Amino acid sequence: VDKEECRFDSKVTIMINGNRQEKEIGTNITATIDLSSVDISNVSNVSCNKGAVPTLENNTLTIDNIMMGTTCYINDSLESTVQSLDNSITNIILLKDINVETDISFFEHANVILDLRSHIINMNDISLLNSGKLVIQNGTFIESTDRNLIFNSGNLSIKNCTMQNEYESNQSLVYNTGKLDFEQSEIISGGFGIDANDKENFEVNIYSGKIDARRCAIRAKQSEVTGKINIYGGTLISAEESTVSLLESENVIVHIEQNKQPIYIASYVNSWHPAVNNNTTGGVIYINGTEANQCTSNPDDTTSGLCIYGETGNGAIRNAKGKVYISGGTFYGGDQAINSSNGSNLDTKVVITGGKILSPKIGVLSHNIGTIKICGGSITAPVALQQTLDTGHIYYNNNLLRNDDSTFSGITANIILDENLSCN
Question: Model-level pTM?
């Protein structure tokens, strides 16, 4: 790095709608500039490069951390601000609610922190496209048409934001092919929440917040997709489809790993869509957490632990073609809690080493040619295990806790009881 760029500067350049000013600041690294004589009624945002941090209150612009070559722009449109970006860290603050008229593109060299400061960006049939490094925080995005709100192929972090599109569509709020971090934010979608797709490696990390979608909250669907989906906390809900869904994506690994935050994942659809769906030959899902204090149709009831809730049908978990490893949490299904069905892959596998399985009908159902191994946890259901195909098997440690009057059903010869069963 050029040492000149690491020095603090004695002046800062201010661009006000294209007009250039230079402010001498001496040996300070903070500038305070009186803009009372300047008409800023139409100004929508302030940006500073070189990592300098602007604030604007009562016509007074304050700029902190002024480095060599710092330039700040005071613009009436976000589009013009984005067009002026260089490859240094740029802080942009929004000053009011705005309507954006054209697509906003953050290119590969961008390194931006966009602070909405509790304001709203209205997107009318346009999208935000990010190929660089972008942090969006502290505000609201609203899209009102059948369009993706954000396309991310770079490194995107969403913090303390609401992203909303209640239009019933086939689009997602965030279409991710890069790295996405989601924290303390909310997605409200009339279509999909997050689409995670690419032929390269993508990554999605959900730390906290809420995704409430009419269709899938998060899905990977393309056949050549490779990547990771990590869910460490938060609430994910689908009204009409599976909530977390792998569809024909061959090499996707999902970790649902409860950390400090509770996790609630639910599908409320009255059909055969489970809350978590693995319909991929190469897809692997790992699930681990503590038992939820409650696991019901109300997400507010789950204040601790991990709850995966399926209203009816295939219930909490369905594994059709890949592998699912369950080591902790609470799993409720209206018809069956854990389901392995309709697959044609001999390597299909469900391994359960812990967790609480609940259902008013069937705890674990196998309608598959693969295997289910149950070495830990508990099952509370009238029918604990059901095997419906003579080509599949359930292996069960008969020492495990289940309600006394529960039964085994179906092809019971393929339910293998083994007091020494190992799931290592």
Answer: 0.93
